[in-house]
Amino acid sequence: MKLVNQQVIKNNNLKTLYHFIQHEPGVSRAQLAKLSGLSKTTVSTLVDELIARNFIQDTGILDDCATVGRKPNGLQLFHGQYYAVVISWSKKVILAKLVDICGVIVKEISAPFSAGDSFITSSRTLFDKILDSELHAEQILGVCIVVPAMIDLDKKEIFTTTLQLGSSDENDFFSRLQSAFHDFPLAIFNDTACAAYAEKVYTRIPQRDFAYINFQHGIGAALFIRDQLLGKATASYTQFGHYSIDPNGKQCSCGNKGCLEIMISEDTIKERLIEAGCRSALCQNEKVTYADLGTAALYGDPSAQKVLSDIARDFSYALSNLVCLVHPKLIIIGGKGKDLGPIFLDDVLNNLKQTGFHRMLDSLRIRYSFLDSTAYFVGAMKYFFDIHYDFTQDPAHSFFIG
């Protein structure tokens, strides 16, 4: 037991130092001791280990350091040494990206996906293709499968997903997935959770309580409570997209009526425009996207402004209930939701002032994501490294859910 505790402490200390070096490039050993609260001797020993294992590097003497006497050496992350392979599943394509643990996507490959194909088999094929002779197996710290789905950690199953899992994938799904990647550490995550984690880490969100709303395949949410991702990266603790905003609304695939996901999804925009008596050129499009609607509204299209306002009203109903339940200090709208533009954001804020609980709204900020559409790949890598990777143990054959 004592050995195990020592390994846990050492792993936590190594991650703490790595975290500070990531966010403070050029930091010295002495500064790390102050930041971490560890002794200088402990910091020096752990830093030497990280350097020896090529996780960080010594950049030499800091010429601009203001200290008196001998100048300290600076430290920074070692790029191009360790990676995670992140594989994303969607209805029509599978994407695999090689992500440096410093946060850079260095290689990507994709394959079309159609009914009858196996997500598991196709993923392993892509994984093998993305590796090359210049990479050694020990440089791959893990494989992350990212899915637009809720994942039940206890029952070890995927549910409430936009994916159509083929018959070849349905039986003993997690066992087959683990078997396909038996030679590498493997994890399966929800896509919204990964995007939210990327936002938290790389935009340095100061709020400990915040919500990330993802307009993507459906409408998902990830919640951080006291700085911890609720329900891990499984999305199993909230299904924001299936909050009913109209009990008499359209029938949703989940069985409920008037779910947020079916009421304000991209697929409903053209129909909404027609119902609003649209005389806009947008109705000539085969499909109207969030970006189309947001741009048209910004440039003064009355029909687009009307529909955008209606969507903002519906969205704010769901948000006001979320705020009353968990009281986030920040709400971030990510994915395709950013394409709805500034008018949508203003309308949501104005609606919340009318429908929400004012005491909680006074301390609430709402903004769009600062990151691009690839953020969830980097978020998956970072979440795996921060939460599941262990510096002190051989992670081979490990399987992590969320």
Quick structural gist:
The protein has helices spanning 2-23, 29-36, 40-52, 119-130, 167-170, 173-180, 191-202, 260-264, 269-275, 290-298, 302-326, 341-355, 358-361, 375-388, and strands at residues 56-61, 73-77, 83-89, 93-100, 105-112, 140-147, 149-152, 157-161, 186-190, 210-215, 219-225, 228-229, 330-335, 365-368, 399-401.
Indicate the overall shape.
Answer: globular
Decide which structural class fits the backbone. Answer: alpha/beta
* Computed Rg: 23 Å
Identify the strand order in the major beta sheet: 5-4-3-6-9-15
**Name given to the CATH architecture of the largest domain:** 2-Layer Sandwich
**Number of continuous helical runs:** 14
Which spans of ≥5 residues are poorly predicted at pLDDT below 50? none
Estimate percent helicity.
25-40%
Looking at the structure, the CATH topology of the largest domain is Nucleotidyltransferase, domain 5
